[in-house]
């Protein structure tokens, strides 16, 4: 009789252990938000790369393309990609005209079925090969946000001249001194967020452009969210066409001062 | 009456404290005014501390010294970071190769470039 009782408890013990070991990994899904404007050339390439690396990693995913009424036919290409890869993988959420990044994220998230959101640029400066690394990093310590950094570890840039590097490092230094954000790359926009974290942050943030990206991290720190970092390589093929001018620098400093005074 | 109003004001103070977070600007202003007060006390002998002359000679130019030191530190750090900024040559090459591969594969799937 004693033998039977211990056997029963042993069986119950195994069941408890098994249910604790069953990780939620099977239900994790990653929604990639791709805001596009005039990315007819790059869109198929970035989608191909995303499909390649996600398929290899075995994670569940979807790609949400938010096109702001591009005049160059980006939306047609997006529809073609949806035909090739299927509407489960490619979701189209187009908009009438260029309306800004924050609203693009909100618009994209409304129909996102993932519990994680990945934001990135669609111009091939951000390489999808880093996404499995983001995912691994997030699972390591349960980070609320994982941010790609160009400034630390093996992170780096291709296609920047000395002037651009100087401005970039100088601006980052001033930002570190004034805001003490706890992360090395504040203006980067290649990130993995838990969906509810991104929703909460977008509600709270008021800036535009890349100051918006800075504000998200600063507010995340304020709200007590954890941020992990993964070094990334940023391949800039656009810089040659659009130099970083005085206007951009001035608006960056204005945005920085606003964050300094309000956070 | 006094006791009750005391309790109420303490309650409000606690609520205020729990929702109050200083902005970075306020932290800086607080820090700078603290340093300013300490420096003034020492330099202008506001509290009759009778500090010896050697310490006074170091104390009064200290803010300028610190500012210059910080300036030099900043230049050194930014200079170092620019010099060691990683150039991702291999990443750029790999991207070029993958672009070609992607174009070939997508053409097979029916996309025309």
Automatic annotation (TrEMBL), chain A:
Enzyme nomenclature, EC number: 2.4.1.83
Single annotated GO MF: metal ion binding
Cellular localisation: Endoplasmic reticulum
Enzyme class: transferase
CDD domains: DPM1_like
Keyword Transmembrane helix among record annotations: no
Catalytic activity: a di-trans,poly-cis-dolichyl phosphate + GDP-alpha-D-mannose = a di-trans,poly-cis-dolichyl beta-D-mannosyl phosphate + GDP
Transmembrane segments: none
Names of the cofactor(s): Mg(2+); Ca(2+); Mn(2+)
Domain Glycosyltransferase 2-like: 31-201
Listed Pfam families: Glycos_transf_2
Family indicated by similarity: Belongs to the glycosyltransferase 2 family.
Role according to the record: Transfers mannose from GDP-mannose to dolichol monophosphate to form dolichol phosphate mannose (Dol-P-Man) which is the mannosyl donor in pathways leading to N-glycosylation, glycosyl phosphatidylinositol membrane anchoring, and O-mannosylation of proteins; catalytic subunit of the dolichol-phosphate mannose (DPM) synthase complex.
Quaternary structure, from the entry: Component of the dolichol-phosphate mannose (DPM) synthase complex.
Identification of the protein by name: Dolichol-phosphate mannosyltransferase subunit 1
Organism (species): Polypterus senegalus
TrEMBL record, chain B:
Function, as annotated: Stabilizer subunit of the dolichol-phosphate mannose (DPM) synthase complex; tethers catalytic subunit to the ER.
GO cellular component: dolichol-phosphate-mannose synthase complex; endoplasmic reticulum membrane
UniProt xrefs under InterPro entries: DPM3
UniProt topology in membrane: Multi-pass membrane protein
Residues spanning the membrane: 12-42, 62-83
Protein name as it appears in the record: Dolichol-phosphate mannosyltransferase subunit 3
Assembly description: Component of the dolichol-phosphate mannose (DPM) synthase complex.
Coiled coil: 85-112
Annotated localization: Endoplasmic reticulum membrane
Membership in a protein family: Belongs to the DPM3 family.
Keywords assigned: Coiled coil, Endoplasmic reticulum, Glycosyltransferase, Membrane, Transferase, Transmembrane, Transmembrane helix
